[in-house]
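tool_call: predict_structure(chain=1)
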Amino acid sequence: MQAEGIGGELRAGYAVAARLDAWRLVPYDQRHVVHGKLRHPDPYLMQQRPLTLILRVGAFTWTWENVVLEGGGILIEGAPVEGVKVLHGT
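tool_result:
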C-alpha cells in the first residue's frame, strides 16, 4: 500500500509529541514506513514509549499503535487500528 497526505501526529499517550505536515507512506521490507517532516517535536515526549501515529487521509484518520522511529522514518506494521471519519467544522 502507498499513500500520501497532509496532516498527522505522533502521540505519547494523549500528548502530542510532534506534528507532521506532508507525509508519504511506502512499503518497506515486510512493513511500511512513513516519511514526513516532524514539526515542533517535544524532546521528552519523543523519548516516551509507546508512540502512536495518527495520519489524516482525506476525511478520515488512520491510527497505528506502537510505531518505531528509525532511520529518519516512522515504521508501522499491519493495518491501521482505526479509520475514523473526521467531521470538519464541528
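agent: The chain has one helix and seven strands. Proceeding to next step.
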